[in-house]
Amino acid sequence: MLARTRLGLAAARPGLAAPVVLVPTMGALHAGHRAPLRRAREMAGGHGSVVVSVFVNPLQFGPGEDLARYPRTLSEDIALCAQEGAALIFAPAPREMYPREQRVTVSPGPMGETLEGAFRPGFFGGVLTVVLKLFCMVRPDAAVFGEKDAQQLALIAAMAQDLDLGVQVVGVPTVRDSDGLAASSRNSYLSAPERATALRIPQALKAGERAASGGPGAVLRAATSVLAEAERAEPALRPDYLELVDPAGFEPVSPGYVGEALLLVAARVGATRLIDNMRVAIPPRPGD
Ligand code: PAF
Predict the structure, then answer these.
(1) Which of the residues are catalytic?
(2) pTM score, two decimals?
(3) Which percentage of the chain shows pLDDT scores above 70?
(4) Tell me, what's the pLDDT at 288?
(5) Which of 39, 122, 142, 231 has the smallest C-beta neighbourhood within 10 Å, fewest atoms?
(6) Is pLDDT above 80 for 59?
(7) Where are the beta strands (DSSP E) in the chain?
């Protein structure tokens, strides 16, 4: 079933058997979206319902970003959602979501000011606002998001907890293409040579992960050296950041840190900006 309006959604909602599991997306669905859809289907069980929202949210795009050229492929998205057992697709037009200027928005707090928040001012406020609106409209029991957008996932989970939304927020591991590149709708922008350069992103993360026994400094040095090589490639990679953070607060870890950390990269190749991350377990080191 497809709902293009709030009224359509409101009419369909009472017919959705519980539990209702929402997968918020911006559409242009690809292999990477099948994992959250399948997870949602599992969580909904034999009787529950999966709802997929498809909405390219203008509130989370800054001036000069790719709002106009972001791929829009609704017919294909509907087919993929049907294959994955979704009961309802909610695909509103911008004026349905924002019938008037949005006066009140969600503030992401300090965890939203670093990394993506620093490079994309207003991004997390836009994401949290649309996700909160979707939660209010769809009233899901749970919602599933990809771990590729790790900081986004952490902020949505924090919003659900801090604002007592009563929605369980679940993350699913990043899906990678066979060459290692994290699946993303923005990969469709890449030319073949740009993609070859972009592959240095997961390679840098892997190099960092392999250096974990040497501690945070070694992780960052290993990943930096792969990125530095890619900065000399043609076309060149232009990193925005490479950080090793504590997954609870997205603060850079101290040199003596032990435990689970997240190695995060954002970088541009040509006109495309990509993000990726990898969990790195930092073991205790002799002498610590
Ligand atoms: O990750 C995305 O696709 C978007 O940021 C989301 C969560 C659907 C909000 O627009």
Answers:
(1) 33
(2) 0.97
(3) 99
(4) 66
(5) 231
(6) yes
(7) 2-3, 20-25, 49-54, 88-90, 142-146, 168-172, 237-246, 251-252, 259-269, 272-282
Band of pLDDT at residue 148, cut at 50, 70 and 90 = very high
**Average pLDDT for residues 46-72, to the nearest whole number?**
97
Rounded distance between C-alpha atoms, residue 252 and residue 18, angstroms: 40
Cα 38 to Cα 84, 123, 137, 255, distances in angstroms: 7, 27, 22, 39
Q: 211 and 133: one domain?
A: no
- Domain-embedded: residue 108: yes
Q: What's the confidence (pLDDT) of residue 286?
A: 80
Assess whether the C-beta atom of 44 lies below 6 angstroms from ligand 1.
no
User: Domain tally for the chain?
Assistant: 2
Regarding whether 121 and 224 lie in a shared domain, the answer is no
How many helices (H) and strands (E) the chain has is answered by 10, 10
User: Is residue 195 domain-shared with residue 241, that is, in the same domain?
Assistant: yes
Å from CA of 255 to ligand 1 middle: 33
Does the beta carbon of 131 sit less than 6 angstroms from any atom of ligand 1?
A: yes
Q: What is the CATH number of the domain that holds 247?
A: 3.30.1300.10
